[in-house]
Amino acid sequence: MNSDLNNENFSDAVSTKYWHLLDDGRVQCDLCPRFCKLHAGQRGLCFVRANQDDKIVLTTWGRSSGFAVDPIEKKPLNHFLPGTPVLSFGTAGCNLACKFCQNWDISKSREMDTLMAKATPYMIARKAKELGCRSVAYTYNDPVIFHEYAIDVAQSCTELGIKNIAVTAGYVCPEPRKEFYRYMDAANVDLKAFTESFYNKVTGSHLQPILETLEYIKHETNVWLELTTLLIPGQNDSEAEIHAMTQWVVEHLGPDVPMHFTVYHPDWKMMNIPGTPHETVLKARNIALENGVHYAYVGNMHDKKGDSTWCHQCGALLIGRDWYQLSEWGLTADGNCVACGTECAGVFEAHAGNWGAKRLAVNI
């Protein structure tokens, strides 16, 4: 499915490299497994990559839907520099078509040009540094589709000692995936379900490429990885599916990859499905722990036990959380359990950050 905007002038567009010409004159985008085949002037389903002069260009380089400083736990990342502030931003569009999208006003927007804040990579990195942010997160919509812009920003951030975080659905082809994660330090990947039927019918994509992305990140990079699954009643929340998903994670990714199970709220094109009962999310967390996942969390609901980090060896409280506010800190300077000495997987510093739960809107 392509958007036909013939004769559009993409004046701010930048060239990309993941595409090839077809015999019929169209250009195929090779960034993600959707492989949009575009006539002149057409945009792909993501709406931000287009055929201009027989090549694929990115139309949103240097433009954002807005910036904010968040707690890192909001991404969510519970094992990467806990308590620190992260400068978050996205652009417009998305390469998935999730009917339940919680950020649809950004990811499905077709009128973002008048709303976008313009910012060069250096401006973003400098602002993150000025605000005391330890990292920048590419989020709100999927950074896969603004691949070139995200990498350029990441390079500027790295030069200033700022870490880079991808919040993504992981729907990307192998070659651009390899390039992208060369510049990332951490990622939270939405594992939206564990059936092909859900991915096909509800997101307009496929499960296998996501699983391949997860295995690539875990086994071929040094990127810290966490997973998030939004549990939707009657769609992806059966105990059988949660068992299958968590068993796969332990077998293919290992027990130390944290999993976040979060409450769904009716949105976008799935307003007819009620919100997730908290009991469903708590049950999913328990299933994950029973199947050997060392760190399982709940999200979009208030449950301090499910928000907090516990030692998988002795059960001691390692990091207390109340929503996004940190409390107890039971880790040594080396990231080990104070009570028994067992290592807690993650990227930690000697002390937790003190950003707290606040959110700060930012102008670049």
Output the keywords:
disordered N terminus, 9 helices, alpha/beta, globular, 364 residues
Question: Would you mind describing this structure in some detail?
Answer:
The protein is of the alpha/beta class and 364 residues long. It folds into two domains: 56 residues, no CATH class; 254 residues, TIM Barrel. 24% of the residues lie in helices and 23% in strands. The longest helix has 14 residues. The protein is globular, with a radius of gyration of 20 Å.
What separation lies between the terminal Cα atoms?
A: 34 Å
Task: Indicate the structural class.
Answer: alpha/beta
Number of DSSP strands?
A: 22
CATH superfamily of the largest domain: Aldolase class I
Spans of at least 5 consecutive residues with low confidence:
1-11
CATH topology assignment of the largest domain: TIM Barrel
Largest sheet: 9 strands, mixed
How many helix segments? Answer: 9
Radius of gyration: 20 Å
What average pLDDT do the residues reach?
92
Q: Strand percentage, roughly?
A: 15-25%
Topology:
Elements: E1 3-4, E2 14-15, E3 19-21, E4 27-29, E5 37-38, E6 42-43, E7 49-51, E8 56-58, E9 63-64, E10 66-71, E11 85-90, H1 104-107, E12 117-118, H2 121-130, E13 135-138, H3 147-159, E14 163-168, H4 174-181, E15 186-190, H5 196-203, H6 207-220, E16 224-231, H7 239-252, E17 259-263, H8 278-290, E18 296-299, H9 304-307, E19 309-310, E20 317-322, E21 325-329, E22 360-362
Helix pairs in contact: 2-3, 7-8
